[in-house]
């Protein structure tokens, strides 16, 4: 029996050596066994050892070939989600919408690296609550095309001129539309249309290359939390005239762009990430449907460069446009689009990209409910709100999806400590939880930590910690020192 095994091993090795001799002479020489006399005679034991080495060599060559031949595929699509006139808008205070300035869209980018598929969706809505929109959309996508829920990021552009269709159970009750007045038929259609944008993008997938770049445009925004001499905050929802003693908070001027191009270098799609509240149209045209300045920014990119351009909101909780109105909306949007277009020209792209997704459920502290002797901005924590954070890794590009309206100070701290070259921080992702503020904001007062959120003091710091922990789980470990 042993002679039979030896004979079989020697035959197998001889065949493999012949193949390697033709295709890889160096490997054949390294894998050949010789007798102590140097006459090239294989024993049973040496044959088995040689066969094992050769199989390992072939496996390594196969793995290397698979990496070399990996093809990144991608596709983009957009679906019109404009509601019928008559639906109340976020800023209309219950009044029916009566005009359309520009259409609303759900835009999707789907990527596949051969083993993992990711989907990124940007919708022209104020929110995408986890239970009301995000989870139902994810379930449809998983059922129809098999993309796992944790691989799907859905964010809102945060237009304040979009439909009011949310119960908004995790944000303050003020201004919320009563449940019986919510148009459930439109909400059902909206969910299906958002999912459809992913289906179409998935169907369009072809070989692509991706890359990211960063620009900036600080002159179109400001921080509305103006501090007085005593350290308290005086809210400046519109930019006030020069007032002695007022100090405005920080902004995040960064414009991040992601380029997705086909094998010929033609753009298939793009993402623009910027931190500024889309409130140019609101509240002056309170019954007019609009995607606000992101509509003009993405239009500039799509008309000049081509493809489908997704807008994602940075950490804009306390950042607003320098001017409001129809004309400033166009100017700000076009200026942002021009900066994005400029940066898209200089992006280095690659198709050698591995995709990864990770998400985590988190709990954030909530305030005490207001009562006769307690104000709504009491920061005492009595409970929790459940939500989630998410990270998508596209090679060396990271998208951090955070729920809620994140103040610029919180976002800047994450960027500073994350240690990543290419990081898109996308707020209003996957859920609606109100404003997420750093501790100092609660000491200073103002709208965001007050009536603007149900979250208690400490929530911003929890968000920072959880985001950095999740990033650390997905980013490569630093190379050991020599």
Describe this structure in words.
The chain is α/β, with parallel strands linked by helices and 482 residues long. It folds into two domains: 73-344, no CATH class; 355-474, no CATH class. Helix content is 32%, strand content 25%. The strands form six sheets. Strands 5-4-3-1-6-11-12-14 form an eight-stranded mixed sheet, with helices on both faces. The chain has a four-stranded mixed sheet with strand order 16-17-18-20, with helices on one face. Strands 9-8-10 form a three-stranded antiparallel sheet, with no helix packed on it. The relative contact order is 0.13. Residues 1-45, 54-67 and 370-380 have low confidence and may be disordered.
Task: Record the SSE blueprint.
Layout: H1 2-23, H2 25-31, H3 44-68, E1 73-80, E2 99-100, E3 105-112, E4 117-123, H4 130-145, E5 152-156, H5 184-203, E6 206-216, E7 221-223, E8 225-227, E9 233-235, E10 247-248, E11 254-262, E12 267-274, E13 288-289, H6 293-304, E14 308-313, E15 319-321, H7 326-344, E16 355-367, E17 381-394, E18 397-401, E19 405-406, H8 408-418, E20 423-426, E21 435-436, H9 439-444, H10 459-474
Parallel strand pairs: 2-13, 4-5, 12-14, 18-20, 19-21
Antiparallel strand pairs: 1-3, 1-6, 3-4, 6-11, 7-15, 8-9, 8-10, 11-12, 16-17, 17-18
Helix pairs in contact: 1-2, 1-3, 4-5, 6-7, 8-10
């Amino acid at each position: 029996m042993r002679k039979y095994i030896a004979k079989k091993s020697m035959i197998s090795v001889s065949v493999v050596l012949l193949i390697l001799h033709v295709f890889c002479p160096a490997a054949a020489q390294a894998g050949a066994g010789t007798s102590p006399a140097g006459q090239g005679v294989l024993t049973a034991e040496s044959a088995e050892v040689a066969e094992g080495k050769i199989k390992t060599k072939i496996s390594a060559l196969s793995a290397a070939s698979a990496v070399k031949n990996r093809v990144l595929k991608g596709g983009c699509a957009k679906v019109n989600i404009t509601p019928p006139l008559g639906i109340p808008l976020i800023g209309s205070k219950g009044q029916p919408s009566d005009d359309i300035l520009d259409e609303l869209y759900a835009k999707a980018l789907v990527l596949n690296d051969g083993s993992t598929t990711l989907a990124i969706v940007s919708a022209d809505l104020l929110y995408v609550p986890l239970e009301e929109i995000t989870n139902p959309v994810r379930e449809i996508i998983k059922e129809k095309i098999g993309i796992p829920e944790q691989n799907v990021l859905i964010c809102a552009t945060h237009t304040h001129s979009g439909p009011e269709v949310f119960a908004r159970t995790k944000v303050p009750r003020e201004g919320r539309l009563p449940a019986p007045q919510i148009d459930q038929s439109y909400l059902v259609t909206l969910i299906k249309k958002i999912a459809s944008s992913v289906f179409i993008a998935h169907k369009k997938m072809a070989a692509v290359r991706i890359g990211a770049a960063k620009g900036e445009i600080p002159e179109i925004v400001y921080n509305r939390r103006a501090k007085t001499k005593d350290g308290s905050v005086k809210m400046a929802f519109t930019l006030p005239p020069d007032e002695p003693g007022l100090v405005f908070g920080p902004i995040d001027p960064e414009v991040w762009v992601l380029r997705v191009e086909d094998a010929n270098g033609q753009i298939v799609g793009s993402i623009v990430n910027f931190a500024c509240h889309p409130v140019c149209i609101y509240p002056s045209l309170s019954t007019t449907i609009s995607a606000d300045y992101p509509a003009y920014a993405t239009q500039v990119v799509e008309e000049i460069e081509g493809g489908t351009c997704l807008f994602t909101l940075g950490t804009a909780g306390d950042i607003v446009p320098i001017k409001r109105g129809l004309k400033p909306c166009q100017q700000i949007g076009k200026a942002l689009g021009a900066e994005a277009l400029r940066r898209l020209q200089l992006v280095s792209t690659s198709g050698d990209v591995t995709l990864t997704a990770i998400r985590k459920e988190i709990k954030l502290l909530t305030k005490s409910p207001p009562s006769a002797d307690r104000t709504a901005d009491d920061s005492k924590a009595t409970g929790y709100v459940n939500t989630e954070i998410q990270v998508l890794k596209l090679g060396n590009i990271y998208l951090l999806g955070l729920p809620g309206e994140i103040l610029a100070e919180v976002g800047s701290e994450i960027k500073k400590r994350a240690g990543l070259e290419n990081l898109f921080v996308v707020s209003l992702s996957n859920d609606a939880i109100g404003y997420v503020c750093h501790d100092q904001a609660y000491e200073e007062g103002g709208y965001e930590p007050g009536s603007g959120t149900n979250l208690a003091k400490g929530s911003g710091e929890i968000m920072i910690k959880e985001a950095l922990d999740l990033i650390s789980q997905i980013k490569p470990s630093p190379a050991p020192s020599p």
